[in-house]
Amino acid sequence: MIAVVHHPAYVAPGQATNPSQLSKNAAIRDLLRTHGGAIDWHEPEPMPLHWLEATHDPGYVAEVLEARVPREKERRIGFPVTPTVAARAQVVPAGTWLAARLALDRGFAANSAGGSHHALAETGAGYCVFNDLAIAAVRLVEEGDVARVLIVDCDVHQGDGTAALTAGRPGIATYSIHAEKNFPARKARSTLDVPLADGMGDAEYLATLSETLVPLIDEYRPELILYQAGIDPLAGDRLGRLALSDAGLVARETFIARTAARRGIALASTVGGGYGGDVLALASAHVRAILMLGNVYRDAARSLVR
């Protein structure tokens, strides 16, 4: 069974300017339910306030949780922060943290939302309210669950918020492979950034991923990888600039899962970006990624003990 974290608040109404992001969470949930007993469901408790404030500015945290985010910040985020959106923002980081805890016990687990890598200390940005990756990583290290966590971000957009929020924090390293000319215009500095040319396809992308990520993993030796598994590198994505095929994305997830499993590194995935008018197609790609990661990780781990 694949451990999947989900909370009813993930499906929050009220983001008319970005409808695909929230409706796809409902579609992801529904598609995963069709797999019946293959999925082991887990529901997170809201992230405690002090862990949100350990990463984000307390004033901004209060603005979000009280649904009084200033209009200029809402413009950066891309939608209004209503009470339902605020409730969602508090449970998504808890979901990523819970997926990580489950992965440390089981090898792999997935959050059915998350990957909000643009949120900064004092504001959200780019459809991201709180940065669940950074919040979860900070909590995991400070509570002593892991000594070293690596955040691997394969979204088509650079994980600028994650890099900024974790810079200088012991026990956390960041990797971002992204379209160089895509959002955000001003990039942050990850532990390792891999900017890619527009239109890059499967073969060059996968080769670059392997050539850059494997040496970092082997040098840093993380106990856990938090994986931002955005599907927006796919060709035709509304906000992407790369040209991966469905098969290329499957190969990416296969590579990530095998690389982690063969080194005994726990792997927890988040959904990340994926944009377009066909919500079912987006959700199907996200679900395919979760299932591929889980099944490949399991098989690779089993092969080591035969």
Topology:
Layout: E1 2-5, H1 19-33, E2 39-42, H2 49-53, H3 58-65, H4 71-77, H5 83-106, E3 108-111, H6 132-142, E4 149-153, H7 160-166, E5 172-179, E6 192-196, H8 202-220, E7 224-228, H9 246-261, E8 266-270, H10 279-304
Parallel strand pairs: 1-2, 1-3, 3-8, 4-5, 4-7, 5-6, 7-8
Helix pairs in contact: 1-10, 5-6, 6-7, 8-9, 9-10
Structural notes for this entry:
With 306 residues, this protein is of the alpha/beta class. The protein contains ten helices and eight strands. The chain has helices spanning 19-33, 49-53, 58-65, 71-77, 83-106, 132-142, 160-166, 202-220, 246-261, 279-304, and strands spanning 2-5, 39-42, 108-111, 149-153, 172-179, 192-196, 224-228, 266-270. It has an eight-stranded parallel β-sheet with strand order 2-1-3-8-7-4-5-6, sandwiched between helices. Strand 7, helix 9 (246-261) and strand 8 form a beta-alpha-beta unit. Helix 5 crosses helix 6 (132-142), helix 8 runs parallel beside helix 9 (246-261) and helix 9 runs parallel beside helix 10. It is globular. The two termini are 20 Å apart.
Query: Total helix count?
Result: 10
Low-confidence stretches: 14-20
Strand content: 5-15%
The helix/strand series, from N terminus to C terminus, equals EHEHHHHEHEHEEHEHEH
Arrangement of strands in the largest sheet: 2-1-3-8-7-4-5-6
